[in-house]
From TrEMBL:
Gene3D superfamilies: P-loop containing nucleotide triphosphate hydrolases. Phosphorylation of dTMP to form dTDP in both de novo and salvage pathways of dTTP synthesis. Belongs to the thymidylate kinase family. This is Thymidylate kinase. PANTHER family: THYMIDYLATE KINASE (PTHR10344), UMP-CMP KINASE 2, MITOCHONDRIAL (PTHR10344:SF4). InterPro entries: P-loop_NTPase, Thymidylate_kin-like_dom, Thymidylate_kin_CS, Thymidylate_kinase. It comes from Lysinibacillus pakistanensis. NCBIfam families: DTMP_kinase. The gene is tmk. The keyword Transmembrane does not apply. Residues 9-200 form the Thymidylate kinase-like domain. ATP binds at G11, P12, E13, G14, A15, G16, K17, T18. It is an enzyme of class 2 (transferase). Pfam families: Thymidylate_kin.
Length: 209
């Protein structure tokens, strides 16, 4: 099996990414693959601090360009401090969100432009894209309802955006599938969690051979 791959999980709020990453990381460890699971924005101290600024529900005045730049700044620090060294050490890295979140949320849904957001991210991390991206696709209403029903995490500034915004995020992601068909693989996230884990595992298992 290939090992030092950079794999990202993407999708709207409440799609199940965090839950599935934990289960997939356990399975990979059983296959003796040295795996690092991390997340964006965050994953290391400086980026976690930037995360609290971006996602604070009180920061309603945040300009969309400030938002895009803060995500890119958090990404740069996280990538060079944690992700790149782990890949260089031969580990597999699984990241809960990465550049495609910026392209879908800031580039497409906020309306800054996908190419503009891509270019600030190229400044932040260079032209390296993930090796494999799994997109959890589902109606935003379903994901948002899961978050409000379970109450396991705080509702953040992006969660409370309008339904129209979250629908644009989904559309933005689906456009990215057309742009990067070799890299981005879509999983139906509107299934029970065991089924989603099996679908993701099957996709990854194929890609890792
Ligand atoms: N397939 C599923 N069916 C029903 N509930 C699910 C499913 N997947 C996840 N959940 C539940 O939905 C909630 C959100 O899941 P999770 O945190 O894994 O999503 P996420 O994609 O990481 O969300 P976010 O990006 O908004 O943090 C959790 O309470 C989780 O138990
Ligand atoms: C990396 C990244 C994230 N976002 C958004 C997506 C979510 O609404 C939050 C992160 O919260 P989660 O519970 O960790 O999923 O931030 C974004 O808009 N742009 C990005 O680059």
């Amino acid at each position: 099996m290939k090992s030092n791959l950079f794999i990202t999980f993407e999708g709207p709020e409440g799609a199940g990414k965090t839950t599935v990453i934990q289960k997939i990381a356990e399975r990979l460890a059983q296959e003796n693959i040295d795996v690092l699971a991390t997340r964006e924005p965050g994953g290391i101290e400086i980026a976690e601090k930037i995360r609290t600024i971006i996602l604070n529900p009180a920061h309603t005045a945040m300009d969309e360009r400030t938002e895009a730049l803060l995500y890119a700044a958090a990404r740069s620090q996280h990538y060079f401090e944690k992700v790149r060294p782990a890949l260089d050490a031969g580990k597999m890295v699984i990241c809960d969100r990465f550049i495609d979140s910026s392209l879908a949320y800031q580039g497409y849904a906020r309306g800054i432009g996908v190419d503009e957001v891509l270019s600030i991210n190229e400044f932040a991390i260079g032209k390296k894209l993930p090796d494999i991206t799994i997109l959890f696709d589902l109606e935003p209403e379903i994901g948002l309802a899961r978050i409000h029903a379970h109450g396991e995490r705080e509702v953040n500034r992006l969660d409370v955006e309008s339904l129209a915004f979250h629908q644009k995020v989904r559309k933005g992601y689906l456009q990215l599938v057309d742009r990067y068909p070799e890299r981005i693989h879509v999983v139906n996230a509107d299934q029970n969690i065991e089924r989603v884990v099996e679908d993701v595992w099957a996709l990854l298992f194929d890609a890792l051979q």
